[in-house]
Amino acid sequence: MTQTLDAEVRLHDAHPEQLPAWEALKSAAIRLQSLQAKDGSIADRAEVAVACGHVDTIIESLNELGPLFPHDATYHEALIRDLEGWKAGGLQVPDFLDSLIEFQPQLDRVHGRRHLVVFPMYTQNGSSNRFVEAVLIEVLWPDFIAELETGDYSNKLFVPIRFLDFTPGYDTNSAVLFPETVAVRQTPKFTWGAIFADREAARFRRVVTAASDITQLELPDEARELIENQQLAEETFVMWDLIHDRTHMRGDLPFDPFMIKQRMPYFLYSLEELRCDLTAFAESVKIAADDDASDEARRHARLVQYAVIFDRIFRFSITGSRVRNYDGLGGQLLFAWLHQNHVLHWTDTKLTIDWEEVPGVVIALGEKIQQLYWRSIDRPKIAHWLAAYELVSETVTPHPASVWAKGADALPLDGPPRGLTDAVLDDEFPLSMFFEALDRKMKDVIESTAGITGATA
Question: What is the pTM of this model?
Answer without folding.
Answer: 0.93
